[in-house]
């Protein structure tokens, strides 16, 4: 495969009308847990801490512009417990009401596919 072919494969443009993702860093105090988060995952926080220490903070948080977490509650809890001062976040600036639940629901089948053991 030539360099031109590799570059054409890896250089992905946004879809028409879709903004490119922008990852910013916010202080950990900026984040707000979603009060109605249905997941009760406090038992997994220590495993998340281990994962962050071993692999780093590999997946950015998804949040509303207010700091409310849409996806990443467990990562947030783990980061807070080990004392990280800031986290990477993708801000969902134009999120319409109800879209957060859709984003969370869409991730569930992918999370189940990724489970090991």
List the helices and strands and how they pair.
Elements: H1 3-10, E1 23-27, H2 45-55, E2 61-63, E3 69-71, H3 73-82, E4 86-91, H4 99-114
Parallel strand pairs: 2-4
Antiparallel strand pairs: 1-4, 2-3
Outline the structure in words.
This protein is of the alpha+beta class. It has a single domain, classed as Alpha-Beta Complex (Conserved hypothetical protein from pyrococcus furiosus pfu- 392566-001, ParB domain). The protein has helices at 3-10, 45-55, 73-82, 99-114; strands at 23-27, 61-63, 69-71, 86-91. The radius of gyration is 16 Å and the shape is globular.
Rounded to an integer in angstroms, the radius of gyration calculated over CA atoms is 16 Å
Could you give the order of strands across the largest sheet?
1-4-2-3
Please, what is the average pLDDT? 77
Helix residue percentage: 25-40%
> In angstroms, what separates the terminal alpha carbons?
36 Å
Derived structural class: alpha+beta
Give the SSE string: HEHEEHEH
Number of alpha- plus pi-helical segments: 4
Strand content: 5-15%
Structurally, the number of domains stands at: 1
Instruction: Fill in the CATH topology.
Output: Conserved hypothetical protein from pyrococcus furiosus pfu- 392566-001, ParB domain
Per CATH, the architecture is Alpha-Beta Complex
CATH superfamily, called what? Conserved hypothetical protein from pyrococcus furiosus pfu- 392566-001, ParB domain
How many strand segments? 4
Please tell me what the overall shape is. Answer: globular
Please describe the biggest sheet, giving its number of strands, its sense, and whether it closes into a barrel.
Answer: 4 strands, mixed
